[in-house]
Amino acid sequence: MGSPADEVNITDAIMEVDGCLFPADIISREGLAYTKNFPVREDDVFNVTYPKSGTTWMQEILSLIMNDVDISKVESVPNWNRAPWLELATAPGYLDGRESPRLATTHVYATFAPTQIMQGKGKVVYVYRNPKDTLISFYHFHNMAKFLSTPESFESFVSDFMNEKLSFGSWFEHIKTWMDVRDKANIIFIAYEDLRKDLAGSVTRIATFLGKKLDAEKLKALVDHCSFSSMKNNNMVNYSEVPRTYFDRGQKFMRKGTVGDWKTMFTVAMNEEFDAFVREKMKGYELDDGWTSDTK
Ligand code: A3P
């Protein structure tokens, strides 16, 4: 997630800003201020996600849609440079002088996002994933990333997820704040599960949203390049080049890439409690595709 440019000492220190927790050694207050005040160009594209919802996958998809499926270009530049996180302290250097159209990534709530997005500038691709699979993926990521604390147990991690005690805040608040601005921002919601079910169809939907048209050959090349098996072995996206300072090498960033992995760790009782909690939390929030926590 971080830029590997500097070998610095990375710890799991946390900072709280406006009620949301952030990993203090990779996200700075300056980065958050930069994000909020980011001067948005009309053709900027923002890849917005709660962590572990398919950010890296979408970075690759958007990079290719936006460069007319020039695979050689994405094979020479790592994802964190092509689609940098706005809230990281390194973002200004990457983005300010960059040619249009620019691609940026962010994990922040809409309330921390660039104000100009809410005035209809730029385009937002919001990727969401079943919260239980997001939780499982985030749990494993906590055991890998040095800037996140190692969970005491799976049960304590589930409790932290439900009680907004994790870095980048609450999955529920995240999606709700972005759904709250969908009449103001130029935004499309894409489910991870739909990418899995029909990648070509989802890519066509995203390309249309961005005003692009891909012929059959380019679409196929993109879909092949963005398959899990291809991305798993692609050093420009699988984080294998990031120094040990950030990631424990014993774990793989490209872990399973499946739907329903939560079934391997949730007990029946945990699942029932979690589903009831999600239903309550998400009351009044439904997406156009009929998504609720149980349906994907
Ligand atoms: P798992 O941990 O469930 O395997 P993010 O990029 O937001 O951090 O999300 C990481 C998750 O997306 C991981 O999930 C990773 O394996 C999955 N992922 C990344 N690329 C993928 C792809 N091409 N197809 C399916 N899943 C992918």
UniProtKB/TrEMBL annotation:
Domain Sulfotransferase: start-end pairs: 43-285
Keywords recorded for this protein, A-Z: Cytoplasm, Transferase
A GO cellular component annotation in the UniProt record: cytoplasm
Family: Belongs to the sulfotransferase 1 family.
Pfam families: Sulfotransfer_1 (PF00685)
A molecular function (GO) term: sulfotransferase activity
EC numbers on record: 2.8.2.-
Main location (coarse class): cytoplasm
Highest taxon of source: Eukaryota
Source organism per UniProt: Petromyzon marinus (Sea lamprey)
UniProt KW Nucleus keyword: no
InterPro entries, per the entry: P-loop_NTPase (IPR027417), Sulfotransferase_dom (IPR000863)
Compartment(s): Cytoplasm
Family matches, as Gene3D superfamilies: P-loop containing nucleotide triphosphate hydrolases
Name of the protein in question: Sulfotransferase
